[in-house]
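Appendix B, record 7
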Amino acid sequence: MLHLINYVPELRGKSEIIEEPLPAQRVKISLRHIHDAPKQAYLAPGRQPLAIEHDGEYASVIILEMCGYQLVVFE
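Structure tokens (predicted):
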């Protein structure tokens, strides 16, 4: 599982607070695998399938759109 976070940190006093999510499009994620390549990938919790591209030791997926947070599952 891969947790993706895309927010704008804002300085409030001496602390940074994360409040505003940022939209992102066409986010490419590459996962390095040592032994077995993942057979499938999907967005959780909806199980929206993602196409996997294999290139040697890397499995890559493209997330078309996310806003703030996204969970990607490789199996």
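Remarks on this record: The radius of gyration is 15 Å. The chain has one domain: 2-74.
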